[in-house]
Every structure is written in C-alpha cells, then in structure tokens.
Fold this sequence. Notes:
21 strands, Naphthalene 1,2-dioxygenase Alpha Subunit, Chain A, domain 1, 18% helix, alpha+beta, 4-stranded antiparallel beta sheet
Amino acid sequence: MAARAMADPADGTSGGGSIFNLGPGAHECWYPVALSADVPKGKVLGRDIADGRVVVYRGEDGVIRAMSAYCKHMGADLSVGGEVVGNNIRCPFHHWSYGDGGECKHIPAGDEIPKRAKLFEFAVREQFGLIWVFFGKTPLYELQTFEDFDETKHVARSFEVQLNDKLNCEPWMFTTNVYDIAHLRSLHGINIVHSEVEEIDRYRSRMSWDADLGEKGSGGLRMEIYVYGVNSLRNKGEQAGRLKWYIGASIPSARHGTKFFMTIITTNEEGAEEFLDRQAAMHAQIMNEDLPVLNNMRLDELLLLPSDRALTRFMRSVLKYPRVTMKELERSVRMD
C-alpha cells in the first residue's frame, strides 16, 4: 500500500513519498515490552517486536536482560519453557544456556561452544515500572525520562492501555496525534491553540500547545511534548492546575498488532490516585476513538494542506528514519 502522493506543506501540491510502504522490520527506537511487575526474578517472557521475537528475563542479580528469542542450536523459543539459571537463560530443549553479551555459556553435552552460538542482546532500560528495549544494534538516543522526578514529591503509574480491538498500524501513526491538530479537534473534541513545533535533532522534536479538553476533562491543558524516535512521547504540563507528566510509547507486533504503554506522573498529594484513574481512562478513550479509523483507512494517497505543515514534516522524517529487521540484527552478531 504505497502512498503515491504527499502534499507539499508550502502550497498543497503533491510531492513524492511512500509513507505507507516502509518495508520490513521496525524503526530503530526504544520500545516498551513489559511492566516491571510482570518480570520478577526468575521470570521469562516472550515479546514480539515487528517481524522478530525477543526473550526478556530477570536474573538472580535483579537485572533485566533481553535477547533474540531463538536458541542457536535447533531454534527453540527460549520464552516457551526456558528457565532462568543464575543470570543466564536455559533452553528447554537441550539446556544450552545464554548470558551476558548473548553468549552461550554452557552446553551439557560437553561439546566445545561454537563461536556462532550467540544471541543478539538488546540494550535494556527500566524506569517508572516499565521495561524498555532498543530495537537496533546501538541506541540512537537516550531513553526519555524526567530528571526532576522525586519519589518523595511525585507518584507514577505505568500501564498498558487496553484497546478494544487489534490495532493494525505502525507506531508512528499514533505519534501523528501530536502534530494532527485538526484531527484532535474533529474526532476528540480537543481544541488546540498556540501550537509551536521545534526540531531538536534527527531523533527528537518538541511541540507545545494550550488546549481546551471539552468533555474529556475539566479545565484547560498546557502541554510541552517531546517526540522521541517515531513512537514515543514525553509530556510535561498541567491540567486543571495540577501537574501532569506522562510518557507514552507504542510497540509493533506483526501477530498481535500495535500495543501502547504509558507512565503518568503527578504530585503526591490528596486525590493523586483518583487523578491518575481519570487520566488513564481519558487516554484509553482517545486511543479507542482512533482505533476504528486507523484500522479502516485506505492508505494509498495523501493530499495534505498548508495547515498540515507540522504533520507533513513529521511524515517526511518517518520516511528518512532508520529501520532494521530482526534478521539483520542476528546477522550482525555473526559478523562481530
């Protein structure tokens, strides 16, 4: 499904582009894969990222590790019956064990460990109760965070947003919400005023706005949103006079559709949990309003207008943004 035309933001005429035919794999970004609470010591999880599969586990040292999921011996999925032994993960089929660096640490049959017996090990971060994996050989940017978060002053909640159906679009489509001001007004009843966009570098941009939430919430909303990669947002703002920070990010899966995770932070004072409840419900409502539209779009041609300038700029950045497949990452291990 190639987009044969994409409007030029300056004059509304068509320009080249294939935004809906980006090829296999996924953009090289930080992706949320699980809640920290779902991976205690000794736990093993399997997660799909685009066309590949990742095994995530927590060793006895409490450290989260993530690797390509299939044993190099005979291709068993390490997340299905695999066990944590110390800080290694052991294959259920013939008990090959893998550890730091993705290297095979032990073969019970006594054979010499082949040099090619090595999995791809992903960069991993854990913060605010979420586990993140960078889908690429080396992180292109640092994972977004809030440096001024203070456990004595703030309360954080991380969760997966529950969608009403499988979402069949790439993560960057969710990110367009930040730039698609007309859609926020038309579909969600959110009136945006005083919006500004600033490109920070190749992997980050900043957008600020003031908004009237209408029936979605009480009071005005002031937001300063940073976009990281093509799939993740970091916001610092206020709603109804109360601090509201959040991080939202999506992860693609060919089998299960795109999933969305969030961390929402507010001040640790009376009414904090109720505020977080309302915010989680509001974001779920907005995403589920988008879902049937995104799943039923005819993705073959765009005609963007001058008023879509910010949206068009983001789509062009998506076209240029680096992508990689799991097979390419696995091959890079053999080449090292």
